[in-house]
Amino acid sequence: MMTSKNGRASFSASPSALLAVPYAHTNGETRNFDLTTSSQDTTIYTAADPSYILSQLKSSEWLQRYGLKAQKLTFDQILQQIGFKRGTVIKSNDSNNYIIERIDLPGIQSNISRNDIFLDSNLCLLECMEAKSFAFIKYPNDSRQCYCPSVILHHLEHDSNTKVRFYDCYIEDLANNQFVIPINKQQFEHYSILRIEKEKSLINQVIVGLNDEEKKFMLGTIKDRVGTGHRYSIEWCDTNESKQNDEHLFGAFTLRNKHRINDYVLAIDDDDTIYKLAKVQSISNDGKNLKVQFINLNTNNDNSLPKEASVPSMTTFVITIEYFNKIIHLLRT
Predict the structure, then answer these.
(1) In terms of residue numbers, what domain contains 92?
(2) Are residues 331 and 220 both part of a single domain?
């Protein structure tokens, strides 16, 4: 329900108010986030360890040496989100801030300023946008469906597409019938800077990421930004290197989620010391541990019993159904 407040658009909390939510921030105390999965593994290595020792580290040992145990992150840092997401207004937090819940991941709530909230009523068709104007547009071929700052270059003659340049200089011809959110030049510059700075901040972060060559989720460290800027060079825990998009990277910068039964997740398999796709079966009363069932990707062995395990919730990443389906396709091809 829309209201008027001090001459600016405002609204009351409503479960049907759909929004595009950017760069979420929530204030709170500093906490430690540790990707170490085994408290029994206390092997310590020093900066002077030679490369041949590092190359022989198991994943759990590698985490102890290079993991997030010593990295303290505020909730402002942890809950930063790259790109605008669709969400629902849960309640007003104060006169100018609202608690927003993600539509694709209902376990994620963020405290968002009214200035950074855009309503469904702001949407318009791409074909209605003027050339050289600015808009938030869904980034192509990304399962997160983020709305990113973009420039409308021009409408294509004798075609139902429009040529668009995103904040990272990626150019794409997009269908005129998709909805976008008009913004002004100042907003384009402001949110482009925020996104680029966030992308730069991931350098040297410890991550769990998809290694395309190995077709598995492995531990690694982000070494550098390459290409359009949201693609990174990764040094994996086996010391090999390859490149990957931020869509497939998870770590302390990933929004923490209140796990729910039947959520799809990336969970550590202690037997193989790698992350695998899984589904939440149950949650401990204190929320610290999850019972998950790992997804069998071996289509030639569908009769095998699904593997179950108890995993720590803090180091288990919730994923959307869109991302789950995308990964299933990638890993099975």
Answers:
(1) 2-28+78-121
(2) yes
Q: Are residues 210 and 288 in the same domain?
A: yes
Q: Do both 145 and 103 map to the same domain?
A: no
Q: Which residue, among 101, 80, 72, has the nearest Cα to 25 in the 3D structure?
A: 80
pLDDT number for residue 249: 93
The candidate with the shortest Cα–Cα distance to 26, out of 238, 285, 256, is 256
How far, in Å, CA of 59 to CA of 216, rounded?
13
* DSSP run (H or E) holding 332: helix 321-332
Residue 226 inside a domain? The answer is yes
The last residue of a domain, from among 167, 199, 231:
199
Q: Are residues 279 and 212 in the same domain?
A: yes
191 to 167, 181, 259: CA distances (angstroms):
9, 13, 30
Q: Which residues contact 316 (CB under 8 A, 6 or more apart)?
A: 259, 265, 266, 267, 268, 278, 290, 292
Q: Round the CA-based radius of gyration of the chain to a whole number and report it.
A: 21
Q: What is the pLDDT of residues 156-195, one digit of tens each?
A: 988 899 999 999 899 999 999 999 999 999 999 998 988 8
* pTM across the whole model: 0.67
**What's the one-letter identity of residue 125?**
L
Q: Quickly tell me which residue has 């040297």 as its tokens.
A: 204
Neighbours of 181 (CB within 10 A): 20
Q: Could you give the CA distance from residue 34 to residue 314 in angstroms, rounded to a whole number?
A: 8
Report yes or no on 52 lying in a domain: no
DSSP secondary structure letters along 308-329: EEEEEGGG-EEE-HHHHHHHHH
